[in-house]
Amino acid sequence: MDKPPRFMDKPPRLLIFVSHNGCGIVSPVIEHLRGNFSVVDVIYLQLPRMVIFLLLLASFRPNRKAWYQNWQRLREKTLFSFRMLTRACERHIARHRRNVDVFIQVGAQFSLGRYKQLVPYFVIADSTRHLSSNNKADEISIFRNQNTAHTWLALEGQVYRHATGLIARSVRVGESFVNHYGANRNAVLVRNFGVGLAHSDGNFSKQYDGKTVLFVGKGNFSAKGGQLVLEAFYKVREHIPDARLIIVGQEGKNIDNIEYLGLVSDRNRLRTLFEQAHLFALPSYIERFGMSILEAMAAYTPCIVANHSAMPEIIGDTGFTVPLGDASALAERILVLLQNPDLSAELGRKARARFEKNLSWEAVGNDINMFIRSRIHYYFIHHMEAVNNQSSLHTAGR
Is-contact 305 279, C-beta < 8 A? Predict the structure, then answer.
């Protein structure tokens, strides 16, 4: 931006960048921003098709799962991909710069390149590479060598330090911005948001049937805690023979009261599953935030999660946490809830109340709006001061 644009008399014009196909937070974030700002466009940055094809060949492994993970790592987590996406981002900025006031980037798998010190921009993130690379279960995020780690973290740090504002979905991510990358604490907003408009509106009669356990997780079943849930469920059935486990996001053979539903794209059906479940279990090893936890809480469904990442921060005192990888502890907590409908109902009411107060878009939307507007104002005030100072120096030099 060569001069400060208009930004107070009209809604700021936003251009949003998302790497690849984005993640679960993208749709509700965009939906919210469209309702409060003038969104010029949403650009999904992609590697060229030929590059993707070559990466598929380079990542080949006989095992299909290993092949996919290796391809995903090459596509998203390498310095090559970071730089390719950054160049693509630069091209889009050059094309749109005159018609956009502020840029938004979701995640930090790329940067605004040469523009990051020239334009106001915000970063929305549910994790940092420092956090994810130190999680042994998050295999694709682990650095292969120290040189790559040093360079990536340096590039990522520039993204955060130059940003006009940083929006973190959890305290641990906000602290990572500051402690691991040296970002300005005053430029960080921590808000636990993420659920879309298809969540339960709460206007239904919740029934706790004493038997239905719900698990939702696509991708790596074991890393999401799926195998742990299965192990715990068989322990539960020793005490409650008619207990049911519904698994969403995975394919499998229905057996022993275990029902695999695969991917459920119908949001209304998924909402009904959350509403009908007695409890929701997600003892994930790799969850960065956990949108499905919010959807369960919106449906008065108490949650059992691993004491890991942002999950305990999300549920607070409305459910249970269990040690990471402890199937026996998970089974015990499942039994406590299935055998105590009154306790389940109490926790469910607290979960819904916490969702409404702290986690819904109605609760956090105004905070995000005010943060973006205040940081834009801060940016342009300082921008104008810098322009005036340069002008004064130039005049004095004459």
Answer: no
Give the position of tokens 């005490």. Answer: 239
Max CA pair span of the chain: 89
Instruction: For residue 365, give both structure tokens.
Output: 């939307």
Rg (CA), the chain: 23
CATH of domain 212-359: 3.40.50.2000
Q: Residue 171: name the closest of 323, 296, 314 by CA.
A: 314
- Strand 13-19, strand 102-106: pairing: parallel
Nearest 10 degrees: CA dihedral of 187, 288, 21, 360?
A: -70
Domain range annotation of the chain? 13-193+361-397, 212-359
Are the C-beta atoms of 277 and 301 separated by less than 8 Å? Answer: yes
Q: Report the helix count and the strand count for the chain, using DSSP H and E.
A: 14, 12
- Which range has the worst mean pLDDT, 110-114, 176-180, 258-262, 284-288? 284-288
Q: 286: closest CA among 140, 157, 179, 68?
A: 140
- The answer to whether 122 and 163 are in contact (CB under 8 A) is yes
Helix (H, G, I), strand (E, B) or coil at 377: helix
Closest residue by Cα to residue 122 from 164, 87, 161, 93 = 164
Dist CA 164 CA 261 (whole Å): 43
pLDDT at 371 over 50: yes
The predicted pLDDT at position 40 comes to: 93
Q: In this structure, which CATH number among 3.30.1150, 3.40.50, 3.40.190, 4.10.860 belongs to the domain 13-193+361-397?
A: 3.40.50
